[in-house]
């Protein structure tokens, strides 16, 4: 588990490759060597600057008032990274992707009791992936960025607050730009790796839309020695399985988003570092501000409460991915000769740090551990072996039925215990509780988890 929160970890390379291991791990999101003031101020490549008209319009950038992250800038940077070599989805590829999603959804009917969650099947280009997922990224990133900004303001020593007052607006604008700059880099890199709308474990696309990123699906299949159709169907099965969970487990989507928000609410900033950074800050000198901001203005401290939130988020993500693994294996096994090889390729991709791992390390300092994913898949498979697909899927009917981190350490034991205490009985007990009381008699947590 990393204790480097949102934007305080390694930076993603702008070319969509591996992360820059030489990046300063103490630099927060948007305050690294990538600067929105141009190459002279922070190493912005000249070819990238030339593709983004907003960099020639600093005044327009500084007028952003849409929230803690400048999403106009994030979008511009993400799309600029994808401009070179951008490919529209050919009609034949679009048809093949949509057909694969529809066929995969039919196969899943025999592997899970959860009904289809795909009301609209689509094929996206990398640019379309950025455009269609931005609203969810905003919901994920804004609370963390806002909390960092608030922590900065409240952590200032009282004698410095009056000094900072006149430049507060400038700091907010610069912060929004820098957050937007690095998020844009990350989205551009992710768009070159992801296979669909949900394969990092989050429902990033519009509700009910199952989508495959055509160019990335083709890239995934290169060198595997499997037919293109087989690769498409396997990845379509994973996408359609994710969509079933997000569509028919009503508390899941919001629980994932709320976990990130809960982490954000716990962010605290070192006031001594804040004082060192703010002293002498000149709002009329952008390059000096960049240097000061990069020098320790945000140095958050991870609290025990935040570690607990990250642990719960890691467990829930492992359970989502493990269930998808188990269900896809059940659906694909009799039909796709290369299913096992494709599953192993997917698992190795996670183990070596695929887009999901990089995303969460950047977003909330969470490093997903591949062992958790394997244990979760083993747990769901054991449940199915004992009680069938219905017993396995029924646990998603209420958040309090979900396995814990300790249960992932003993998948077979949890499966055996679940048969001694059937989910039907637990659901009846939970439904019998007063509406404002949790299972232990305490008030339930806010949000859908209390439903």
SSE layout and pairing:
Layout: H1 39-42, H2 46-51, H3 58-62, H4 71-83, H5 91-108, E1 120-124, H6 126-155, H7 158-164, H8 168-191, E2 209-213, H9 214-221, H10 228-248, H11 252-265, E3 268-269, H12 271-278, H13 286-294, E4 300-301, H14 304-332, H15 339-351, H16 355-364, H17 370-394, H18 405-408, H19 411-420, H20 423-432
Parallel strand pairs: 1-2
Antiparallel strand pairs: 3-4
Derived structural class: mainly alpha
Order of helices and strands: HHHHHEHHHEHHHEHHEHHHHHHH
Physical arrangement of strands within the biggest beta sheet: 1-2
What's the count of strands? 4
Radius of gyration: 23 Å
Supply the number of helical segments.
20
Alpha-carbon distance between the two ends:
29 Å
Number of domains: 2
Q: Strand percentage, roughly?
A: under 5%
Helix residue percentage: 55-70%
> Uncertain spans, ≥5 residues at pLDDT below 50?
1-51, 293-299, 436-451
Label the overall shape.
Answer: globular
Average pLDDT for all residues: 75
For the biggest sheet, the summary is: 2 strands, parallel
Could you characterize the architecture of this molecule?
By secondary structure, this protein is mainly alpha-helical. It has two domains: 39-370, no CATH class; 373-450, no CATH class. It has 20 helices and four strands. The protein has helices at 39-42, 46-51, 58-62, 71-83, 91-108, 126-155, 158-164, 168-191, 214-221, 228-248, 252-265, 271-278, 286-294, 304-332, 339-351, 355-364, 370-394, 405-408, 411-420, 423-432; strands at residues 120-124, 209-213, 268-269, 300-301. The strands form two sheets. Strands 1-2 form a two-stranded parallel sheet. A two-stranded antiparallel ribbon has the order 3-4. Helix 4 (71-83) runs antiparallel to helix 6 (126-155), helix 11 (252-265) packs antiparallel against helix 14 (304-332) and helix 14 packs across helix 17.
């Amino acid at each position: 588990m990393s204790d480097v929160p949102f934007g305080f970890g390694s930076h993603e390379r702008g070319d969509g490759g591996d992360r820059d291991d030489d990046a300063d791990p103490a630099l927060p999101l948007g305050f690294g060597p990538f600067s929105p003031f141009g190459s002279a101020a922070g190493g912005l490549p000249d070819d990238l600057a030339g593709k983004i008209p907003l960099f020639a319009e600093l005044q327009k950038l500084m007028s952003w008032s849409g929230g803690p992250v400048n999403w106009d800038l994030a979008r511009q940077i993400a799309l600029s990274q994808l401009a070179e070599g951008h490919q529209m989805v050919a009609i034949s590829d679009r048809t093949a992707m949509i057909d694969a999603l529809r066929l995969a959804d039919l196969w899943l009917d025999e592997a899970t009791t959860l009904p289809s969650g795909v009301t609209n099947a689509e094929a996206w280009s990398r640019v379309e992936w950025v455009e269609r997922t931005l609203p969810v990224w905003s919901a994920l990133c804004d609370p963390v960025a806002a909390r960092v900004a608030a922590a900065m303001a409240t952590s200032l020593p009282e004698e410095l607050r009056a000094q900072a007052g006149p430049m507060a607006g400038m700091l907010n604008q610069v912060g929004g730009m820098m957050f937007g700059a690095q998020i844009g880099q990350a989205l551009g890199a992710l768009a070159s790796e992801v296979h669909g709308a949900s394969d990092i474990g989050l429902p990033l696309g519009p509700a009910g839309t199952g989508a495959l990123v055509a160019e990335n699906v083709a890239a995934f299949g290169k060198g595997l020695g499997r037919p293109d159709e087989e690769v498409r169907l396997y990845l379509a099965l994973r996408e359609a399985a994710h969509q079933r969970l997000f569509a028919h487990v009503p508390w899941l989507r919001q629980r994932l988003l709320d976990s990130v928000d809960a982490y954000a609410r716990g962010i605290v900033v070192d006031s001594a570092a804040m004082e060192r950074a703010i002293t002498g800050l000149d709002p009329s000198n952008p390059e000096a501000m960049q240097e000061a901001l990069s020098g320790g203005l945000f140095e958050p401290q991870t609290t025990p409460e935040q570690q607990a939130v990250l642990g719960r988020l890691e467990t829930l993500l492992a359970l989502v991915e493990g269930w998808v693994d188990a269900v896809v294996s059940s659906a694909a096994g009799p039909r796709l000769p290369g299913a096992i090889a494709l599953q192993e390729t997917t698992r190795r991709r996670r183990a070596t740090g695929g887009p999901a791992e990089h995303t969460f390390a950047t977003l909330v300092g969470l490093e997903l551990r591949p062992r958790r994913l394997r244990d979760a898949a083993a747990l769901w498979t054991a449940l199915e072996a004992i009680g069938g697909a219905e017993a396995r899927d029924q646990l998603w009917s209420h958040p309090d039925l979900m396995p814990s981190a300790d249960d992932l350490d003993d998948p077979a034991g949890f499966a055996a215990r679940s048969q001694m205490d059937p989910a039907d009985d637990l659901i009846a007990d939970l439904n019998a509780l007063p509406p404002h009381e949790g299972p232990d008699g305490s008030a339930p947590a806010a949000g859908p988890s209390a439903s």
